[in-house]
Structure prediction request, 556 residues.
Amino acid sequence: MLRQLYIKNFALIDELDMEFRSGFSVMTGETGAGKSIILGAIGLLLGQRADSKTVKMGTDRCVIEAHFDLSRYGMQDFFAQNDIDFDAEDTIIRRELTSAGKSRAFINDTPVALTMLKELGEQLVDVHSQHQNLLLSKQDFQLSVVDVIAQDAKELDDYQQAYTRYHDLNKEEVRVREEIEQGRQAVDFLQFQYDELSNAKLHDGEQEELEQRSETMTHSEDIKTALYEAENALSDDERGVVSNLKKSASALQGIERVYPEVAELAERISSCYIELKDVADEVNGKLDGVDFNPAELDAVNARLDKIYDLQKKYKADTVGALLAIQQELGRKLSNIENSDEALAALERQVAQAKQQAQAKADVLTKKRQQAAAVIQQQMQSRLVPLGMPHVRFQIVISPSELGRTGQDSVAFLFSANTSTPLQPVAQVASGGEIARVMLSLKAMISGAVKLPTIIFDEIDTGVSGKIAEQMAQMMAEMGRNDRQVISITHLPQIAALGTTHYKVYKDETPQGTTTHMQLLTADERVHEIAQMLSGSDVTAAAIQHAKELLRPVVTK
Prediction:
C-alpha cells in the first residue's frame, strides 16, 4: 500500500510530504483546490507521459516520490526478474522531471525505463477516474473483468500459445498460396530462364580459363618471339649458355686430378648445366606449342561473349553466381511442380493447429461462462443496496471467430427497471447508475486481484444521500481486506465514513497560489464535513449533522 507521498515543485505544489494509512481514506477539498494535481503526480509515478509545463514556474526540476509497503502482496518476482533490489516494507518509486523536458524514473534508486515503471505501477495502484466509466462500452474491458473473476490466466496463456501457432501457420499457408499462384503465372518464363542457363552448360572456373586462353592466343606472336629469343640464348651452339656451361664444366673436370680444389666448382657448374638444359628443353617445347589459330580464338571469344551476355542479363558477376541462379530457378520449378502436395501438407498442419486452438478455446469459454454466472449473481447483490431494487445485470457470451483472446464476444446487459428490456449497459445506464456499476465491478475485482491501493476519483458523481452512504460502505469494506482505498469526494456521506480524512486546499501568497494537503484531526473533520453540508457559512445545525454522520467512525 501507499505509505508516503512526496511532491516538490509540481504545478501549484511547492512541497508536499504526506503519510497515508491502510483501510478506507477520503480526500476532500473545494473544486480547483488541487486534488487533480495530486492525482496527476501519482499518475507520473505510475508511468504516464510527462509534460515539462507541469514543473512549477521558476524552478528547474520537480520530484515525485512514493514509498510502498508490499510485504503482503508477493511481488518479489518482479524485482528479481528485473534485477532490482527488493525491500518489501519500503519500496520507493521516484520520478524526476526538468523544465527542459528531461525525465528520469527510479525504482529503489535503480534507474528504469518508463515502460518498466508503468508495468510496476499497474500492480501497485488503480486510479479510477470518471473517464474510466467509458470503459463499460468497450468489449475488451468487459472481457477482462470476466477473465479476472474466472482466474483463467493459465488457460488463456495455453490458448494463446496454440492460437499463435495456428495464426502463424495460417499466414504461411496464405504466403505459400500466393507464391504458388505467382509461380504458376510465371512458370513459362521461369522455365525459359532455366533452360537458357542449363543449355549454356556452364561450369565453375570456365570464365577464367577462357579469358586466359583468349589472352594467350591474341598475343601469340609476341609469345613466340620471346620464347625463341630465350631458347636461342640458352641453346645456341656457339654462344648459348647451355653449351658454354658444358664447356666450362669439361675444362675444370680436366684439371681435377692435378688441381683438386676445382672439383666442387666443376660439380656446381655441372648441376647448373643440367638445370638449364632442362629449362631450355621446356622453352623449346612451349615454342612448338604456341600456334595462332584464328578459328579457335573466335570460338573462345564467342563463348566468352555468351557468358558475358548471361551475366549482364541475370545481373551476376561470375559463372558461379549464374550457376546459383540456375539452381534457384530449378528449385522454384520443382516447388511449383510439387506445390499441390506441399500445400496439402501445410493445409493439414493448419487444420490440426486450428483444432488444437479450438479445443483450448472451448476450455476458456467454459471457465468464462462459469465466471459470468458468478458475476451476475454478485452484481445483483451489490447493486440492490445501492438503490436499484429491480436491477437486472446479465452477461452474454457469444461465439466469434478465433482471435487473440479466444472465441468469445462479451456484452454486459443492464436494466434498472422491470419494465425496461436488457440493453448494453453503456447505452441505457445513467451517469449515477454507471458509477454504481463500476464501483460494484471494482469491489468484485478487488477481491480476486491483489492490488495494494485503489483510488476512486469522484466515483460518487450522480448519486447522493443514502446511496452515497451505501457506496462509501462498499469502499470501506474493500479497505478492510489488506487493501488501501482512497476516495476523492464532494459528498459528506462518503467523507464521513473514511477512517482517515485528508483535505486539499489552496493558499494565496504574495509569491502566488500554492496547493497544500493535510491530515485532519477529529475536530477538523467535523468542521470540514459541516462545511460540505452547509457551504462556507458553517451553521450549528451543520456541525450537529456532521457529528451525527461521523458517530460510527473511529477517527484516527
Q: What stands out?
A: The longest helix spans residues 339-383.
